[in-house]
Amino acid sequence: MIDEGEPIVIDEDNIPKRVMMKVTHNLTKIEKEQRILRRHESDREVFEEVFDKSTLMILYHIMNTGIFSILNGVVASGKESRVYWGVTDKNKNVAVKIYLITCVEFKNRLQYIVDDPRFNSVKKGMRNIVKLWARKEFKNLRTAYNAEIPVPKPIYVKDNVLVTQFIGEDGVHAPTLNVCEVSQKYYTEILEIISKLYKAKLVHADLSEYNIFLHNNKIMLFDFGSAVHIAHPNAEQFLIRDISNINRFFNKKGFDVYELKRAMEMVKKD
Predict the structure, then answer these.
(1) What CATH number does the domain containing 186 carry?
(2) Which domain, by its residues, includes 130?
(3) 89 is an active site residue
(4) Torsion sign over Cα 236, 225, 125, 101
(5) Which residue out of 206, 242, 256, 270 is catalytically annotated?
(6) What are phi and psi of 94, to 5 degrees?
């Protein structure tokens, strides 16, 4: 596993202008081919919001060090980030998640960072908050992965770019639980995963049918930016919300679910 390692210092003046132009050209081509933003006059502004100069330099470094060599099209798009399909020299797929530096939504995410004992201080400024959020998701994924919890393997993080294992095939991510045929066994499996996560001293804090993959008939949790240490003062409330969301989903599908109190006891049991 590639860890964060030492801070990467990229000397912009030493990056050949033709290389930066090539990276920019390739990424612009990706956007056009995907036809994600072509219908609006703000297309270029949105592109620059994702691929600002700093992000381009980080992507240049990552490609240059071989973490992945090809960046294909958009896999998923949200208010806070966009996920791209990357391919390594060995033809292995990776997910490249780029957090939007200018996204104001991150101001609402401070409740998941402040009071988490793993992060003692938060520097002012949106860029610093976004960088911390990316590092936090990497750390959460690494903790879960090392505890043998089914999550995408974390590979690398730098500033606002996170690289993980790609869950899916040929650039198409695995289906999320909300669009899958589900059964009672998946409910039980998810509660067991939540319990295992709790034993690893983490609460997902944003769990629902929309951030659970069903890949090869196996449950896999993702989107761990909000996850908090169980010592966080709101960890209990977040856990209640996670379980309530899962209960709501499976109950709506017609399956038996545990009462909240019983489910909490099962999750916390030694």
Answers:
(1) 1.10.510.10
(2) 12-172
(3) no
(4) negative
(5) 206
(6) -135, 155
Residue 7 banded pLDDT, cuts 50, 70, 90: very low
In whole angstroms, give the CA distance from residue 194 to residue 62: 33
Cα separation values, 224 from 60, 136, 138, Å: 25, 8, 8
CA neighbor of 194 nearest in space, from 264, 116, 270? 264
Tens-place pLDDT, residues 193-211 = 999 999 999 999 999 999 9
Are 256 and 182 in a shared domain? yes
Annotated catalytic, 206?
A: yes
Query: Is residue 4 one of the residues assigned to a domain?
Result: no
CATH number where 149 lies? 3.30.200.20
Task: Tell me, yes or no, whether 3 lies in a domain.
Answer: no
What's the domain count of the chain?
Answer: 2
Which of these is catalytic: 116, 159, 223, 242?
223
For 144-202, what is each residue's pLDDT tens digit? 999 999 999 999 999 999 999 999 998 999 999 999 999 999 999 999 999 999 999 99
Q: Please state the pTM of the whole predicted model.
A: 0.83
Tell whether 6 is covered by a domain. Answer: no
